[in-house]
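Entry:
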Amino acid sequence: MDVVSDAISAVHLGHPSSQRVRMGGSWCARLDPYDGAGFHVVLKGSCWLLTDSGAHVSLGVGDAVLLPHGTGRVIADSPVDAATAREKAVPVERLVVVTGASPGSGPRARPDRDETEILCGTYWLDCSRMHPLMAELPEVVHLPSRVGTHLELRAAIDLLAGELDEVRPGSCVALPNLLDLLLVYMIRSWMTESTSGAWPGALGDPVTSAALRALHSNPAAPWSNDRLAAEAGVSRPTLARRFTTLVGRPPMAYLTWWRVILAATLLRDTTETLATIAARVGYGSPYALSHAFAREFGTTPGRYRAQAVSRSASAADPQLTPKTH
């Protein structure tokens, strides 16, 4: 896989959720912090977003905002400060949910002109060991709607809104896959526009990106600095200098770290034996993997698996999943 796909897969838990909500008049709603990422897309009208850290964002029609760290926030019809939000904000569950039309039913009632309609969603994530690409995402990723920009993202938003607007055959498969696609496109859009993140620079550098692509495509291969430098088409010192500068650690140190993170993902998402996982991620024995795993995570693979299964079950349980995040 590639770096972005791996970074998302390593933390992804359960199924994402989304709903369309509609508000009119004066309104103010609160979303508490949670372990995951959230997004909002304004389909009609406008609103303001205030995070718990004090960031204010004005959102208009077509604007998308990703909150990759599950930051607590308030969304409202007009600018609010923290004191006003504490006094007036109601739980987001009280907002009016726009449900899809039943097959064969008439058209949905036309909304009032002054109403605001927002597409809201949640991705449940295992934040115990995030890939640095995910960790460096800012608290708020604001992707304004501008003609000619983020075309893939706009197409995904349109498809997702359509699926939520009308019950159709196959929606149970289409919706979670469209939500996952939306997350990829939002991260891609951030990488395209970012002027400060380390990872957009790393993936934009031909030498470092070639090395990362090789490591993520086959992490179990017997990589060495010389072999990786040859794969990237540069000398070993050149690779070491550019990779370490952009990624923050030398190539082999990054590979060791990634192998353990990949092992953690396999422990969480599969029932494979430790021996099988060790072979898949490039360790010669379960003992060697256990030693490296304990050094990184501070626990044994078996205990980690038990805890991870519990977290995954909680994320997958619809009774534990807020419906409008």
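Confidence is low (pLDDT under 50) at residues 101-111, 318-325.
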